[in-house]
Amino acid sequence: MNSGVSLVLVGASGVVGTKIIQLLEKRSFPIDQFLPLGNSTVGSSIELNKKQYKVLSLEDFRPTKGQFIILSAGSSVAEKYARQFVDKGCFVIDLSSNFRYEEDVPLIIPEINGQILKRLSQPSLISNPNCSTAQLLMALKPIHDKAKIEFLNIATYQAVSGTGKAALEELHNQTYFTDSVAQSPVYPKQIAFNVIPQCDIFLENNFTKEEMKLVWETHKILDPNIQIQSTCVRVPVFNGHSEAVFFRVSKEISREEIIAILENSTGIKVLDDPQQGIYPTPVENASDTEDVYVGRIRSQKLDGESWISMWIVADNVYGKGAALNAVQICEELLNLNLLK
User: Fold this and answer.
1) Alpha carbon separation from 220 to 114, 214, 227, 297 (Å, rounded)
2) pLDDT tens sequence across 240-261
3) Does the domain formed by 5-128+322-335 have CATH 3.40.50.2000?
4) Shortest CA distance to 258 belongs to which of 138, 167, 92, 142?
5) Is 225 exposed, middle or buried, given 0-12, 13-18 or 19+ CB atoms closer than 10 A?
6) Which residues carry out catalysis?
7) Cα 305–chain centre separation
8) Residue 1's pLDDT is what?
9) Strand partners, 6
10) Same topology for domains 5-128+322-335 and 132-159+195-314, yes or no?
11) Of 3.40.50.620, 3.30.360.10, 1.20.1080.10, 3.40.50.720, which CATH number belongs to 132-159+195-314?
């Protein structure tokens, strides 16, 4: 990555936007021009690489050819602007779910299907996967390569940071101010001291949209033949998603083999010595961390079938679920020298 780019960040003041800025600095992403955009935050100040930038109006912004534009502002903003920006000659990386399931929009986790980016010959719209999907598939892909996953059952335990700043404030207020416990403007039920078996809206099949995202995105990114059941639960954790995963594979594979596979996989850290209390948790392993952490790994035979169980934890904002994956996509695009 020798030459810098013009990088536009929509939603620079948001929960994910601030983490993207931290990663751009940490990873020394080459930027010639930085343009933070917003609506309600216009005029506020954003710092990048020890320089101050004023947040500019998204409404007034006019893109120029060759810019990288990261959209971290939700589906309505993506729907209005994403394809317009691509038409102006920009590469657009969208973190919302708005375009993930459209055939002409690649849904990318660089370590898994980053080769799709090599096929791009012109400015394009690229989708970032759901936070739960990203950490899940990072752990499953290397195992799937060795022993095909046939059936997957997953339960997620999702932190409130996945819903945004208002959700973080709601958990804080309900936890520390007793007169606010009954107030739940963000979630359908009290989140403090509780678990809510609902992330996003319910669909006609009685699964939530968040649960179906795991199905749709796993099929698009990894393998459409995997049968999947999912339950997504919101828990009173500020940051870091956890997942209990149970899956049937095509051939027997031992716990020791699984650990070896994961330890040799990019972006994965194995923490698995339960007798010594070693396993990942959000508090310990999901605070501005880039890796996906895996523990509680078990392999067993059930009625002649080979099953694997494990526990997955990752930072859903800073890490693979959002900011890191978006920055990595930009890095891949820059390495491919597509801005000629």
Assistant:
1) 13, 10, 13, 26
2) 999 999 999 999 999 999 999 9
3) no
4) 142
5) exposed
6) 131, 241
7) 31
8) 44
9) 33
10) no
11) 3.30.360.10
Write down the domain spans for the chain.
5-128+322-335, 132-159+195-314
In the block, tokens 């990019």 appear at 266
pLDDT confidence of residue 337: 79
68-104 pLDDT, tens digit each: 999 999 999 999 999 999 999 999 999 999 999 999 9
Which residue has 């809510």 as its token pair? 196
Q: Which residues of the chain have pLDDT under 70?
A: 1-3, 178-183, 339-340
Q: Is the CA virtual torsion 66, 67, 68, 69 positive or negative?
A: negative
Report how far residue 315's alpha carbon sits from residue 292's, in angstroms, rounded to the nearest whole number: 8
Burial class (CB in 10 A: 0-12, 13-18, 19+), 287: middle
What pLDDT was estimated at residue 226? Answer: 98
Can you give the chain as a three-state secondary structure string?
Answer: CCCCEEEEEECCCCHHHHHHHHHHHHCCCCEEEEEEEECCCCCCEEEECCEEEECEECCCCCCCCCCEEEECCCHHHHHHHHHHHHHCCCEEEECCCCCCCCCCCCECCHHHHHHHHHHCCCCCEEECCCHHHHHHHHHHHHHHHHCCEEEEEEEEEECHHHHCHHHHHHHHHHHHCHHHCCCCCCCCCCCCCCCECCCCCECCCCCEHHHHHHHHHHHHHCCCCCEEEEEEEECCCCCCEEEEEEEEECCCCCHHHHHHHHHCCCCEEECCEHHHCECCCHHHHCCCCCCEEEEEEEEEEECCEEEEEEEEEECCCCCCCCHHHHHHHHHHHHHCCCCC
